[in-house]
Amino acid sequence: MTETTPPSQEQPDAPPFIFYMDGEEYLRELRTLTTWVSDLLLPLYGREATSQQPWCPRWWEHLEAIARLHALWLAWQECTGAAAGASGPSAWHRDHLGPAMAELRSATGPFAGCKEGGHRAKAVPAVEPYDGGNGAGGTGEPDPYEISLW
After folding, report:
1. Which of 63, 79, 127, 133 has its CA at 20 to 30 Å from residue 14's CA atom?
2. Would you say residue 96 has pLDDT above 50?
3. Is 133 in contact with 146 (CB distance < 8 Å)?
């Protein structure tokens, strides 16, 4: 006797997250995402940009924005399709739209420093290279990942 997965437990193939793509597949997904953002998201939910609620006119140059907007778009597709039920769009607004836009448009978010008509790349925080466990940065200090906290 062979085991089969009950239909209620089958999961359809979910579209991959954009950063798992590369080359032409990535560019095609980004073009589709920019269409969704410019034709649906911003006309409906794009409030005026201010210093407290910034928006970058070149948002696609911010990797964090791409990540958050792509996740938002994937959730849109899942929550507004026929299988989502009547409460799907409400769940999308509550669970996805509000938090994503709050993070993107935060005064300290990825668009901080960008102004209407002007993109400003954000500096990435400095990160020291991990030495593979040979002491904390070669200082002779014990590796914090090898110390038991319990």
Report:
1. 63
2. yes
3. yes
* Burial per residue of 88-101, b for 16 or more beta-carbon CB atoms within 10 angstroms, e otherwise: beebbeeebbeebb
- The number of residues in the chain equals 150
Span 57-80, average pLDDT: 96
- Cα separation, 142 vs 10, whole angstroms: 47
Would the pTM of this model clear 0.70, i.e. be above it? Answer: yes
Cβ atoms of 55 and 46 within 8 Å: the answer is yes
Q: Which two tokens stand for residue 52?
A: 């407290």
Q: Which helix (H) or strand (E) holds 1?
A: none
Token pair listed for 11: 């999961």
Q: How many CA atoms lie within 13 A of 102 on its CB side?
A: 7
What residues contact residue 116 under an 8 Å CB cut-off, 6+ apart?
A: 49, 55, 57
CB-based contact 45:99 (threshold 8 Å): no
Report how far residue 116's alpha carbon sits from residue 42's, in angstroms, rounded to the nearest whole number.
Answer: 14
